[in-house]
């Protein structure tokens, strides 16, 4: 591990604390994560570590103590929360769903848009009362926001109720960070900008017993001009194929029914491993051979989506016929300024290639509206592309400038009310298509992974179809955790109702 790049908060406790100017106080002990440095991707190869253990001195640190983690943002963060829960339980902390009962509260944060960050600052503010009532509670901020210099400075200056800030590359350091926070009166800040490591054997407590996340790679090197993720998550680094395959086998043996392979940009899988001629298509082909009923993957960048991958997905088997393929914009100039490295035409060509191999595929996407200087015509190109592709659904976002990204420095002549108006117009198109697509399932039989009873009624079960559509149906609790066949009897705006036809009993796993 690279100790020089470690930002140690430890020395802080030996200094005398001044009255007001906290930023000055931290200046000489704390080097903030630097966005410019993050952009210079290290050439050094990735180091794989398999030696994580809970050191003797930390064992039992959590005995008699409870923890609460609030997770914001994407699946990557949800999965990191499972790892932090694993580490905390290995330290003998127990989980609680009630923040007021907790002795350690962690906010696993997201930096993708300004409103995501504002939510977190709001929550840190709320936690001030908890700290007043229970001065011994430890409050930690981790996840993507903690990799941002401005956020770390703001917390140090204005949120003295925070005890720990640690970055996305420091999760495995949680035992040491906690111990330091117990010993120290000052805020413990540990954010590494170093990102060349993959740590394999971290403990995990998965939130569900039916579906599981499997990281296949970390980080992102695409540097889309609006996006903070390459800075907060570091450079692209793939896990070794054998590690992923053995994790999937293990999940299958434990009875998991569905896995989602995770990465910011899964199509780039394997490209960073020197001498390895093995990509996402190859990995999926190997996972296809494993006895696990459902495999999904996200997120796909259209740039790296190759023919091998299309061929493997088209073979079907346990790979679900749903591809989330963010397009962001339907206009070439905007795509160019976004740094997406594909054109409207090449995107449409890719969709055609995918559909030729897999006619029944469900495609969903992400779109950003109101990019700096986006014209009405450029916006209409996005609407036009949406209709042409006929996406089943989309996540739509108002562009949010992120400090340190190239787009944040662009002049922008589009008034906010215009941007909001475009978002509303796009959302109408999206809603129309989503409803229309769902309506087309009426009367059909669909395969559903039954995830559990609805919150209000035990006899009403819910799950997702192979194409990720939510469906509710009456059935016995025995169906939970199994693939069931359901006939669609009613379709609504975002979900469907159906009647159970049969429960498909799982076969013996031979992995
Ligand atoms: N790695 C994925 C996306 C991760 S972020 C990919 O490249 O497809 C999820 C979505 O958030 C993006 O697809 C984009 O639509 C949106 N997004 C990212 N940065 C944004 C910003 N600065 N403002 C608004 N939306 C943003
Ligand atoms: Fe962000 Fe682009 Fe990377 Fe996706 S591919 S995480 S949008 S930089
Ligand atoms: Fe947010 Fe970080 Fe994910 S910025 S979207 S939590 S990678």
TrEMBL record:
Gene3D superfamilies attached to this UniProt entry: Methylthiotransferase, N-terminal domain, tm_1862 like domain
Mind telling me which residue stretches traverse the membrane in this protein? none
Per the record, its GO cellular-component terms are: cytosol
Residues noted as binding [4Fe-4S] cluster 1 in the record, renumbered to the chain: 74, 110, 144
- Give the E.C. number(s): 2.8.4.3
The protein's required cofactors: [4Fe-4S] cluster
Q: Which residues form the MTTase N-terminal domain?
A: 65-183
- Entry keywords, A to Z: 4Fe-4S, Cytoplasm, Iron, Iron-sulfur, Metal-binding, S-adenosyl-L-methionine, Transferase, tRNA processing
PROSITE patterns, from UniProt? MTTASE_N, MTTASE_RADICAL, RADICAL_SAM, TRAM
- Where does the TRAM domain start and stop, copy by copy? 439-502
Q: Where is this region: Disordered?
A: 1-23
Tell me the compartments it is located in: Cytoplasm
> SUPFAM superfamilies recorded for this chain?
Radical SAM enzymes
Any one GO molecular function term: tRNA-2-methylthio-N(6)-dimethylallyladenosine(37) synthase activity
User: What top-level class of enzyme does the UniProt entry assign?
Assistant: transferase
UniProt KW Cytoplasm keyword: yes
Cofactor binding description: Binds 2 [4Fe-4S] clusters. One cluster is coordinated with 3 cysteines and an exchangeable S-adenosyl-L-methionine.
Q: Where is the Radical SAM core domain?
A: 206-436
Q: How does it assemble?
A: Monomer.
Q: Which PANTHER family match?
A: CDK5 REGULATORY SUBUNIT-ASSOCIATED PROTEIN 1 (PTHR43020), MITOCHONDRIAL TRNA METHYLTHIOTRANSFERASE CDK5RAP1 (PTHR43020:SF2)
Record function comment: Catalyzes the methylthiolation of N6-(dimethylallyl)adenosine (i(6)A), leading to the formation of 2-methylthio-N6-(dimethylallyl)adenosine (ms(2)i(6)A) at position 37 in tRNAs that read codons beginning with uridine.
Task: Give the protein name, as stated in the record.
Answer: tRNA-2-methylthio-N(6)-dimethylallyladenosine synthase
- State the gene name recorded for this protein: miaB
